[in-house]
Amino acid sequence: MPAETIPMLPAPLLEVRDLCVSFPSRGRMIPIVEHVSFTLGERDILGLVGESGSGKSVTAMALMGLIDSPGVQITGSALFRGQELVGLAQKQLLRLRGSEIAMIFQDPMTAFTPVYTIGWQIDEQIRAHERLSRKQARARTVELLADMGVPDPARTADRYPHQLSGGLRQRAMIAMALSCNPSLLIADEPTTALDVTVQAQILDLIRSLRSTYGSSVLLITHDMGVVAETCDTTLVLYSGRVAETGPTDALFAHPGHPYTAALLASIPPLDGPRPHRLPAIAGAPPAPLERPAGCAFAPRCSYAHETCRDAPPPLVPLVPAGQAGQAGQAGQNTGAQSAANIQQQSAQFAACVLPAEGTLLLPRLLEADTAMSSPGGIILGLSDQGIQPMLSSAGEPPL
Amino acid sequence: MTRRSDTAITPDASASASASASASARPLLDVRDVRKTYHLPRGQTLKAVDGISLSVMPGEVLGLVGESGCGKSTLGRCLLRLTDVSSGEILFEGQDITALKERALRPLRQQMQMVFQDSYASLNPRRRIGDLLAEPLRVHPDPDGRKRSRATITARLHELMDLVSLPVSALERYAHEFSGGQRQRINIARALALSPRLVVADEPVSALDVSVQAQIVNLFADLQARLGLTYVFIAHDLAVVRQISTSVAVMYLGAVVELGETDAVLHSPAHPYSAALTAAVPRPVVGAARAAPLGGDIPSPVARPAGCRFHTRCPFVQDRCRVEEPALHVIEPGHSVACHFPLAEG
């Protein structure tokens, strides 16, 4: 599959092109991640979302140079501020990791060593990258912990990981990750182990980082709710391949890939009418070795037809509302000029044959005006913008 | 809103909550002031379940929700007497199971089964699925008190596979050959082997991916309708609980803080904790307005706050809440809350 040309943002912080990761097993290579491309701008939050085994963590580990299993094959390119990360020597990676790119993990208990205090570990990280005295480092640590909303930061710094609650440990880990002011923070399921009320606090904190620390965040999660609340851009992975990518609001309002649409539909709603049955997706994602030759989702897809089974469909642009007419033309004529034109204007891409065939999925059914209020002045509802269909389905038979 | 000082939801109220689910007035499960206290070193005590009273009518699905450490799993285990209670009564069809000897309990065990979160850990990896599913049928006699024949058992196994939509060939295979969703189907089949009346499911879908989770939630709902089962469905995911439950009990630090019909509790919560919990769930919708998250952490259950157990995090805390513990009281038929100042109808 060729690399897709996604319109260039001004000076992206991270530009990943055609990243592939394969692991050897019993004499053959198992492709875990195939041709993943994305761009992360300064102060952007990009959500990498997918089910278990979709390759989201492996993608992040490959970017950080953290995959060292023998025989692993990483190809493609990942430019961080113009510097190639794929194949970079460990020595140079060491300089980048922690100071320029930092990572936080799902389980802060195993990310900290249990035998040193939280403060000691953050001090050490600071002193590994900067020439500071112990005292200066500790002052910075305490300040960071305070910034992360840790109560009584000076005393908390003297505590061991097991003495803190899950939420405080995660705050401490974010403090450690931010200690050298990295421009990129990779957060791998940072709230999955946390309770929902604490998750809300940590997501607030992550959202605030771009203004307080100027950090970009690559947020890896399986939770579509977390993505909707946190990320500017969303990349949906399915079985190691990009299924869909685009601005979060557009993608959630009008998913272009049947997998995205089905995944969103299968989440039980918390507001509005309760469906009699959940629209579940039949079957399970394929194992990497059993991935079909064509679209990986085809065996579970209700729109699948012959063209889906030949080769993995390339990422094609979906068209913003105004250009719906042109899209129809492009679909039929595939005129090089109009296609290029659309490519520049669209930011939402789906690896699916439907858009090229002129078949458009319907926008998500959401009750626009069922803004519900609950006690305590909490208003739950949708903004007008959130339900604007991105594609005009006029003239298309409903699917 | 009238306020009464009942310490528990009254039988009348609970019956009306599930009047549609059952014609019988007697609850299948009646929990009365159940406590489970663990004694820790240095004289500390952990009140995992701190005086819970509730009842579940036949055909009802009670969702037990709450964050980690709230005692929902401990309560679930107590309901089946997998854990002995420290005090209180648990009546299963009017019979107190907390006092029964193990031998007398055995016939009742057929009536109540459990499905666990970890579908892999619950299945012996070295035995075939058919063998695992046959075990309860071999251990327990049939309703006439006779040992089941091999042919009866095989026929039942085929029935069970059909119930959970797995091929009969699955019986010949081992747990590792299945995906997480399929393994959970097997666990459900085993729980149903003896045709129980009550199934306690402890986070049965939280280890599954969303696309598979929906299948299993649907399966639970189908089986409930088809077999007239009663569930106690323990989960931290409010959306899943809403999908399956007829009523919901919200737990916080070992106690039920709100209890009522699903839509009442989740859409017009009367307890500030229920409101905060519902509001904190991220919606998969861009632009959904978000409430300011609840501050602080859940206190340690070892050092439970005095007065209202939620007062340390409550945005509406008053002086009275710091000293006097609110009892669970009825605010409208079938809806009880443990709060001095319940939130008004939204």
From TrEMBL, chain B:
<dbReference type="GO" id="GO:0005886">
    <property type="term" value="C:plasma membrane"/>
</dbReference>
<keyword id="KW-0547">Nucleotide-binding</keyword>
<keyword id="KW-0067">ATP-binding</keyword>
<dbReference type="GO" id="GO:0055085">
    <property type="term" value="P:transmembrane transport"/>
</dbReference>
<protein>
    <submittedName>
        <fullName>ABC transporter ATP-binding protein</fullName>
    </submittedName>
</protein>
<dbReference type="InterPro" id="IPR013563">
    <property type="entry name" value="Oligopep_ABC_C"/>
</dbReference>
<dbReference type="GO" id="GO:0015833">
    <property type="term" value="P:peptide transport"/>
</dbReference>
<dbReference type="InterPro" id="IPR017871">
    <property type="entry name" value="ABC_transporter-like_CS"/>
</dbReference>
<dbReference type="InterPro" id="IPR003593">
    <property type="entry name" value="AAA+_ATPase"/>
</dbReference>
<dbReference type="GO" id="GO:0005524">
    <property type="term" value="F:ATP binding"/>
</dbReference>
<dbReference type="Pfam" id="PF08352">
    <property type="entry name" value="oligo_HPY"/>
</dbReference>
<feature type="domain" description="ABC transporter">
    <location>
        <begin position="29"/>
        <end position="278"/>
    </location>
</feature>
<keyword id="KW-0813">Transport</keyword>
<dbReference type="Pfam" id="PF00005">
    <property type="entry name" value="ABC_tran"/>
</dbReference>
<dbReference type="InterPro" id="IPR003439">
    <property type="entry name" value="ABC_transporter-like_ATP-bd"/>
</dbReference>
<dbReference type="InterPro" id="IPR027417">
    <property type="entry name" value="P-loop_NTPase"/>
</dbReference>
<dbReference type="InterPro" id="IPR050319">
    <property type="entry name" value="ABC_transp_ATP-bind"/>
</dbReference>
<comment type="similarity">
    <text>Belongs to the ABC transporter superfamily.</text>
</comment>
<dbReference type="GO" id="GO:0016887">
    <property type="term" value="F:ATP hydrolysis activity"/>
</dbReference>
